[in-house]
Design goal:
Number of domains: 2
Cofactor: a divalent metal cation
Pfam families: MenC_N, MR_MLE_C
CATH architecture of the largest domain: Alpha-Beta Barrel
GO biological process, one term: menaquinone biosynthetic process
CATH topology of the largest domain: TIM Barrel
Number of strands: 11
CATH superfamily of the largest domain: Enolase-like C-terminal domain
Order of helices and strands: EEEHHEHEHEHEHEHEHEHEH
Radius of gyration: 20 Å
CATH class of the largest domain: Alpha Beta
Pathway: Quinol/quinone metabolism; 1,4-dihydroxy-2-naphthoate biosynthesis; 1,4-dihydroxy-2-naphthoate from chorismate: step 4/7; Cofactor biosynthesis; phylloquinone biosynthesis
Shape: globular
Structural class: alpha/beta
Largest sheet: 8 strands, parallel
GO molecular function: magnesium ion binding; O-succinylbenzoate synthase activity
Bound molecules: magnesium ion
Strand content: 15-25%
Distance between the termini: 21 Å
Helix content: 25-40%
C-alpha cells in the first residue's frame, strides 16, 4: 500500500504544566495509508519523549525510510524504541483486525454505548466551579490534579469539592508522582472518608519509588491506587504487572504504548484493571485508541471511564472534522 506522511502542530489553549516544564504545542505526524483497492486509513504518531517514547525527530527519521510504499509486515520491524511509530503504523493493520459493528464516529466527544469519558477538571480552586459545565455535557467521572500546591491547602479544597458535587459524581485524583509516601497515605485516608466514591489515587509517587512503597500500604485503604507514568511503555507495563499484579489500576495510553494488538493480547491474557487514556493525540489517534478500548470492552475488560476528556484543551475545531478534512488542513 501507499503511505503519505504529514506533520502537525497543535497549540494548547494554554500551555500544560508538566514535570518537564510548560508544554505549549502538541506536535506529531499523521499517516495516510491507501491500499490497492483505494481503501484509505489514517494513523497518527504522537510521541511524548519525557514519557519514554521516541522523539519527533526519531519518528520522522523512521517515516523517511518509506518512500511512499509500505507493507503491513513492516509493522513488525518497528523496534520497541519507537512505540508511537508502532501505534501509528499499526493503524493500517488494526483497521483490518477490528472492523466491528462498534465503530466510533470521529467527532464525538463521548463514544456511543456504555463507555464513558472522564473529564479533566481545572487545577486548584478553579475545580470548585469547573465541574458544572462538564457535568452538564454528560460527564460523570472527573479527574483532579493534586500534588501541585501545599498539602493542607489541597486537602481543604478537596473537602470543599467533594461536598459541592453531586454524590453520583466519581472522582479520580492524579498526583503525577508528586507526593511522598506519607502524603500519599494521608490522601488515601482522606479519600476513604469522602462522602462520594473516589475511584483511585493515580501515580502518588514517582515511578522510581512507587513499587517499593506499594507493599507498605497493601490492604490498608479502600481507595484504589493507579499507576500511569510507571507504565508508559509496554515493557514497563509488563514489568510492573509482574511485581504488583492486580494491586493497582493501570492507566494506559495506547498512542504511546506501542503495537495495539500486542497490548490487546496482554490485556486479554492477564485481564488487568485498566483505564485507557489520551496521550493528547488528535482525533485520528484517539479514534484508533478508542477502537482498542471498545474491542477490549466487548471482551469484558476495562469497564472504567476512558481518560479521553481533553478536547477542550485545544482551541481548534479538529474534534469536529472528519479524518479526511483534518488531513486536508495539514
Ligand atoms: Mg496521570
Amino acid at each position: 500500500m501507499r503511505v503519505e506522511v504529514r506533520p502537525y502542530r497543535r497549540p494548547f489553549r494554554q500551555p500544560l504544566q508538566t514535570a518537564h516544564g510548560p508544554w505549549a504545542v502538541r506536535e506529531g505526524i499523521i499517516l495516510r495509508f491507501e491500499d490497492e483497492q483505494g481503501q484509505v486509513t489514517f494513523g497518527e504518531i504522537a510521541p511524548i519523549p519525557w514519557f519514554g517514547t521516541e522523539t519527533l525527530e526519531q519518528a520522522r527519521a523512521w517515516c523517511d525510510r518509506f518512500s511512499r510504499n509500505f507493507a503491513l509486515e513492516q509493522i513488525d520491524d518497528i523496534p520497541d524504541s519507537l512505540p508511537a511509530c508502532q501505534f501509528g503504523f499499526g493503524a493500517a493493520r488494526d483497521r483490518v483486525a477490528w472492523v466491528s459493528p462498534a465503530r466510533f464516529e470521529m467527532p464525538s466527544l463521548k463514544p456511543p454505548g456504555p463507555l464513558s469519558v472522564c473529564a479533566l477538571l481545572p487545577t486548584g480552586a478553579a475545580a470548585l466551579e469547573g465541574w458544572q459545565g462538564l457535568w452538564e455535557q454528560g460527564h460523570r467521572t472527573f479527574k483532579w490534579k493534586i500534588g501541585v500546591a501545599a498539602l493542607a491547602e489541597e486537602l481543604s479544597l478537596f473537602q470543599q469539592l467533594v461536598k459541592a458535587v453531586p454524590s453520583e459524581l466519581r472522582l479520580r485524583l492524579d498526583a503525577n508522582g508528586g507526593l511522598t509516601g506519607e502524603e500519599a497515605a494521608t490522601w488515601l485516608a482522606e479519600c476513604d472518608r469522602a462522602p462520594l466514591p473516589i475511584e483511585f489515587l493515580e501515580q502518588p509517587l514517582p515511578p522510581a519509588q512507587i513499587l517499593d512503597w506499594l507493599p507498605q500500604v497493601k490492604g490498608q485503604f479502600q481507595t484504589a491506587i493507579a499507576v500511569d507514568e510507571s507504565v508508559a511503555t509496554f515493557r514497563q507495563l509488563q514489568q510492573v504487572y509482574e511485581r504488583v499484579g492486580r494491586q493497582v489500576v493501570y492507566v494506559v495510553k495506547p498512542a504511546i504504548a506501542g503495537d495495539s494488538q500486542r497490548l490487546a493480547h496482554f490485556c486479554l491474557q492477564h485481564r488487568p484493571d485498566v483505564v485507557f487514556s489520551s496521550a493528547l493525540e488528535t482525533p485520528i489517534g484517539r479514534h484508533q485508541a478508542l477502537r482498542l478500548a471498545q474491542a477490549l470492552w466487548n471482551q469484558g475488560i476495562s469497564k472504567r471511564a476512558l481518560g479521553f476528556g481533553v478536547e477542550h484543551w485545544f482551541a481548534d475545531d479538529w474534534a469536529t472534522l472528519s479524518a479526511e478534512a483534518l488531513w486536508a488542513q495539514l
